[in-house]
Amino acid sequence: MLLNNTTSQATAPFSTLWTSTDIFSLINLVAILLTNGTTLFVYARCSQLRSNTFSLYLINLLISNVFKALTAPVEIIQHLAVRKDQSAAYCATLIALGYTSNAVMMHNHVLITMNRVWAITFPVGYRNYHSRRTAVVLCVAMWVYVFVWLLPGIIVDGVWYHVATGSNCMLNNAIPAQRNWNMAAQVIVYTLPIFVVILAYPLIWYKRQRQRRLRPTESIISQKEPTSLPSDKDERRQHSHSFKVLTLLTISVLVCWTPLTVYYDLLVFGEVDVGGLYEGGWVLWEIEPVFDPLLFAVALKTLREELKRLLCW
User: Fold this and answer.
1) Contact (CB, 8 A) for 87 and 224
2) Which of 117, 127, 215, 231 fits a 20 to 30 Å CA distance from 261?
């Protein structure tokens, strides 16, 4: 995210001084790769975990978290070996990595939420039209959407509007067109996804409670009309597990992503810099990918058992 991204405060051509931010980023990088990489390995080796199409969205989120983690070394190197005047291409690459890695991570949460909205609001259509192919297409389309939305503005800035700002890399918001694009990206790519995730949850919860109250009647009907679909019990179990994952992820988004998003909304639209909000919000934002696979394990018994089997092997 970090729409007014400043990637370094050093002024010397080369520096060997590790800041607390560098050390934190390195530790966080290891933690993200450890938790997400281990969970990805378990999904790769256990076909049972991949049998549910919903798992493809979880795998996609794990991949985006790893992508996010791999941008950390770039920023650490930027801090430790920084040139006084960054080239346009170098800054554009650095900004693009920061923008896209955060955006795909956020939009994966939106995909998971909208999948549950579809499943709970239009259950018949979900059974008929949602397949593994559908899930893969939606995941790929999300990545394409993020890159198509963000890269043009970053490339335009690097080619035509880049201004040397010493050791810092940031977009040139002095240009009205770039500032307008920056504001649009803040709303559509960063702020709106958080609203979608948080506001969709009450709808999903309400629909779920309503379906649970109607289930006895539906069960009687299903007994009179046998079908080739999976048993109602298995389907309910799958939806229950998915809802647990969604609940934990929604709480994680609310706690970890809201503070920094509020900070940047105030900064971009009101030019208000709330002291102290950035530091705390940035830490919460950065550690959120560490918890995603842990939340999966808490909600999904099969995954938890496979992780135990792997760690005790």
Assistant:
1) no
2) 117
In the chain, the number of structural domains is 1
For 292-309, the pLDDT digits (tens) are: 999 999 999 999 999 988
State the alpha helices, DSSP H only, in the chain: 20-45, 54-70, 72-80, 88-121, 123-129, 132-156, 176-185, 192-224, 232-256, 258-270, 277-299, 301-311
Selected residue with higher pLDDT from 3 and 84? 84
| Token pair listed for 183 | 């504001």
Backbone torsion region of residue 271, taken as left when φ is above 0, otherwise alpha when ψ lies between -120 and 50, otherwise beta: left
CB atoms near residue 265 (< 10 Å) = 17
Query: In angstroms, how far is CA 187 from the centroid of its own chain?
Result: 16
36 exposed, middle or buried (CB, 10 Å; 0-12, 13-18, 19+)? buried
Residue 68 domain boundaries:
20-215+231-311
Tell me the pLDDT tens digit for each residue of 198-222: 999 999 999 988 877 776 554 444 4
What's the CATH code of the domain at 150?
1.20.1070.10
Which residues lie below 8 Å from residue 107, measured CB to CB, with a gap of 6+? 142, 145, 146, 189, 193
Identify whether 72 is part of a domain: yes
- pTM of the shown model: 0.86
Which stretch of 155-159, 199-203, 219-223, 284-288 has the lowest confidence by average pLDDT? 219-223
Residue 2 has pLDDT above 60, yes or no: no
